[in-house]
Amino acid sequence: METIAFRMNLNRGQTEEYKRRHDEIWPELAALLKDSGVSDYSIWLDEETHHLFAVLKRSDDHRMDAIPDTEIAQRWWAFMADIMETNPDKSPVQVELKKMFHLD
Fold it and tell me: What domain range includes position 93?
């Protein structure tokens, strides 16, 4: 298992809507993530900057690279595009974060 983290940007005033949408995550999206080798996925909000901090574990044989090509991921990105910073293809702008410390 590998743990990775990344940052995304939430539009101001969209905290409650972002939370609501994730509280009601589509079952087929959750299944896609799990089937792709993703587990223990959390997203945290820095309320001062509106940065979203995501951390997840992925299996050694994960298939995360194929997720963007799926219809469900494309629909989710379009659904979320009005409340967060996105790329031209509607995928969320993500900045990989470098691990600086870990304590088991």
Answer: 2-97
